Amino acid sequence: MNIIIVGGGKEIHFLAKSLISKGHKLTIINKNSEDCIILKRLHEKAIIVLGDGTKPYILEDANAHYADMIIALTGKDQDNLVVCQIAFGLFNIKKTFANVNDPKNVHIFKELGVKTVISTTQIISSLLEERISTEDIHNLFPIEEGNITLMEIDINEDSRVIGKKLFEIDLPNDSIVGCIMRNNKAIIPRGDTTVTLGDRLIILALPNVQSEILHTLLEKVE
Amino acid sequence: MSSPHEYIIIAGCGRLGSFLARLLSSDNKSVVVVDKNEEAFNNLTEEFSGFLIGEDITEIDTLIRAKIDKADVFVAATNDDNTNIMVAEIAKKIYQVPKVIARLYEPTKQELYQQLDIDTICPTILSAIAFKEIILAEEE
Q1: Under CATH, domain B7-139 is a member of which superfamily?
Q2: What pLDDT digit, counting tens, does each position of A19-74 carry?
Q3: What is the pLDDT of residues A157-206, one digit of tens each?
Q4: Which chain B residues touch A104 with a CB distance below 8 Å?
Q5: What does the alpha-carbon distance between residue B27 and residue A171 come to, in Å, rounded to a whole number?
Q6: How many angstroms away from the CA of A200 is the closest CA of chain B?
Q7: ipTM over cut 0.90
Q8: Nearest Cα to B47, choosing from B60, B33, B28?
Q9: Where do the domains of chain A lie, and which CATH numbers do they carry?
Q10: Residue of chain B nearest A57, judged by CA positions
């Protein structure tokens, strides 16, 4: 795929490396000449364009007519919006991604036609909140733009669900235990699977029931 | 004809925003001027009798505080094209403000936003035309 990334300093090195290693043709547009020099040195296979990616003629220089996807990662929400709209409206790029810094802009950008809107602020703050509330969650991934979350929860000695079968545990309706990791083996559980100490439960759930799940699984035995 | 109670929001209080605010205000329109830099309000003269909001227009809460849902006209006149585009689109598409006008320095962006039913004014093009007319008039 031909992919254009607009903006982004050091933080895009990992993304750029991973896209190039997967065989995508990458063009990076950056308006800072020092950043461009560093980008060129680190990513020899990428095409680096110096300029303001919110201007149609700069996008044309970056061969936007042949691009399949554009990712807007500048620090200003309004610039990211304009990049995506020009890419779609003038260059017919179907896949447009915008990063937004103000989470309130997520639904605004979607109404204004940006296909995928990512709010790193929102993702990071939700991660932090969950980390603070318990240390027994190992991972929490927002999927489908945060509409679903995947949680990994370790069952410690205080948990009151040890020894119970899954159907006896009163988990909220909008959640399901998809897998249990026990002694490095994956078990696909059924209703009669018993939860034991040290299990890591992998749970798929809607975000609004996250805290209820934690409450049910990790609350201490009275 | 427009009613004297027409409610107009102007984003950006630089040379253009402040001058326009003064003209509209002396024409008895109710005008609100928004600029994140409160010092910019010094550009306004005593003739201006509207309201001022010293906040960042790109925050949706600022637009709500400016009562964008009641606006008849929204003018985006900040010194940043992309800010003008974003707030103009929010005014037009999300709050259905009947008349939305944005100032764009960059002529090549104009085409796209006219498709989106936002009126744009490009000072570069306007001055070029004015220059051309003077030059050609002198030749006659």
Answers
A1: NAD(P)-binding Rossmann-like Domain (3.40.50.720)
A2: 899 899 999 999 999 999 999 998 989 999 999 999 999 999 999 999 999 999 99
A3: 878 888 888 888 888 888 889 899 898 888 899 888 899 888 888 888 88
A4: 59-61
A5: 65
A6: 42
A7: no
A8: B28
A9: 2-118 (3.40.50.720), 123-218 (3.30.70.1450)
A10: B108
